[in-house]
Specification:
Elements: H1 6-21, H2 24-40, H3 44-65, H4 70-98, H5 102-109, H6 114-120, H7 128-143, H8 153-161, H9 174-181, H10 189-222, H11 229-259, H12 278-284, H13 287-298, H14 308-326, H15 330-348, H16 358-380, H17 384-395, E1 401-403, H18 409-417, E2 421-423, H19 431-446, H20 451-456, H21 460-477
Parallel strand pairs: 1-2
């Protein structure tokens, strides 16, 4: 069920009304059932997979806490990690890992293993990487003694399945989310008001900004060799902000939905394009994932406590894993490693250029945004060949081709007879860059706080002027195509 679908906007108020009509002690059960309806609306089979993950992790933790010896506890933690990573690998990476190898051919033709190959080719369950990481964090935190285990299986299942943040995060920790899910709460105007504000702004970012940018980006990536150099740069710039507004919009929609139930989810973005370095950028972008990798991978393998070489290896491991987490594709691995190399460059080299100057700060911000935009070519490309095509377009190295903004059929035939390939320009409606500009001004100049807090500090006229603009943009210029959220595939 998509946040930007009509079904969700019928589902959310219905669940909210029924939830508060129930007695306090039964609400969490209804919320659990609603969360599974939300997830199972797409495929009930995958709701079963999520339930299996929850049951296994809960059972292994229950067995772990009964052990006296630390070595026995580690066995159950290892089993939990193996089952979680194994299921993730089977559904997301198995087909990629085998490729067209001889092993894959033999397994496919064997009556005993053919079903495994077919399972690996299944559609990746939406959000499997998100809820798997959330469940893993619970196991590790309980093992370390940082959290108390949940004795009730259904209550733990709700922690994993809570629908606003189920499919694309934020990846919440057990201690922060669990206590809110079961706390006594009655709806208050302050939370409802702020929740509606976040829902409105998030929907504007998704359907008015991100989806319209996506229409241009998809036009380019369908045939990157057919567009001129300027179009390649525009598409790359647009995709950078398509990803940002798409995922930022999702995060706000998740926060707004949860706030209607009195539950506060963590902020996932803090103006990342104001960052002056790649390390700072990743402290501002997809914060829940960055902090997850910091706490459960970077620090355990040594972090910054064992010298620069261990630090460098830990950073590259984190970004390699992050790239692989984003998708079973060589382009995602390159994207992750490129971020790791840029992180180390800023950490060990570029930070030495520490000039105290307003101009220098702007240069650093532009540099950071530019290099992030370049790595996103790999993020968006479906193959390494396509990424090469895009980079060739960006560099203008398209020999034997000439530029043409708009040509009739006769001109195209004449050019083809002369052995030339005509390069087109992207077709961009005026409202698309306008909405992007409005968002940029709002996000980087006007909103000094999160939108709900900013709106509360402004006059009635200012607030409603902006509300009406958002509503008009959504209803009139909302994307003609209902694009899925970019991070649903992860």
């Amino acid at each position: 069920m998509l946040f930007n679908s009509v079904v969700y906007w019928l589902f959310l108020p219905l669940v909210w009304v029924l939830y508060f009509c129930l007695p306090q002690r039964g609400r969490w059960v209804f919320l659990l059932l609603s969360s599974y309806v939300f997830y199972g609306f797409w495929k009930w089979e995958f709701a079963g997979l999520m339930a299996l993950t929850s049951v296994l992790d809960w059972a292994l933790v229950q067995a772990m806490i009964k052990q006296k010896r630390q070595s026995f506890k580690k066995i159950f933690v290892a089993l939990a990690l193996l089952t979680n990573i194994g299921l993730l690998f089977l559904f997301k990476y198995f087909d990629f890992a085998l490729g067209s190898s001889e092993l894959a051919r033999q397994m496919y033709h064997s009556p005993y293993t053919a079903w495994i190959i077919e399972l690996g080719k299944f559609t990746v369950p939406a959000g499997i990487s998100f809820y798997t990481f959330q469940s893993i964090s619970y196991v590790i935190d309980v093992y370390k003694g940082q959290e108390q285990p949940e004795p009730s299986l259904p209550k733990f299942m709700l922690f994993v399945a809570f629908f606003p943040q189920l499919v694309a995060g934020p990846i919440e920790r057990f201690g922060r989310l669990h206590q809110q899910l079961f706390a006594a709460y009655q709806p208050r105007w302050a939370e409802l008001r702020d929740g509606f504000r976040l829902l409105l702004y998030g929907l504007f970012l998704k359907v008015a900004v991100a989806d319209n940018l996506a229409s241009v980006v998809d036009q380019f990536y369908a045939q990157p060799n057919h567009f001129d150099q300027g179009s390649a740069w525009v598409a790359s710039f647009f995709f950078t902000f398509q990803v940002y507004t798409d995922f930022f919009g999702y995060s706000l929609l998740a926060q707004g939905s949860a706030l209607l139930f009195g539950i506060r989810l963590m902020d996932n973005f803090q103006k990342p394009f104001l960052a002056k370095s790649i390390p700072e950028f990743w402290h501002r972008w997809h914060i829940s994932l960055s902090t997850w990798f910091r706490d459960y991978l970077f620090i355990p393998v040594g972090g910054n406590q064992r010298g620069p070489w261990v630090l460098a290896l830990a950073v590259l491991l984190v970004f390699f894993t992050s790239g692989l987490w984003h998708g079973a594709n060589s382009t995602m691995i390159v994207f992750g490693l490129a971020q790791g190399v840029l992180y180390l460059f800023d950490r060990f080299v570029f930070k030495r250029l520490a000039w105290e100057s307003w101009i220098w700060d702007r240069v650093r911000q532009v540099k950071t945004g530019f290099f992030f935009m370049m790595t996103l070519v790999y993020f968006r490309s479906g193959s390494m060949d396509q990424a090469v095509q895009v980079f060739r377009g960006l560099m203008g190295r398209l020999s034997g081709r000439r530029y043409a903004a708009a040509l009739d059929q006769a001109s195209r035939v004449q050019a083809q007879n002369q052995g030339e390939i005509l390069l087109q320009k992207l077709q961009i409606d005026l409202h698309i860059p306008l909405f992007l500009l409005v968002f940029w001004i709002l996000d980087h100049a006007i909103f000094k706080k999160r939108f709900d807090a900013w709106a509360e500090s402004k006059s009635l006229l200012q607030r409603w002027g902006l509300y009406l603009f958002f509503i008009a943009a959504i209803l009139i210029w909302g994307g003609a195509v209902n694009h899925p959220f970019v991070y649903f595939q992860f």
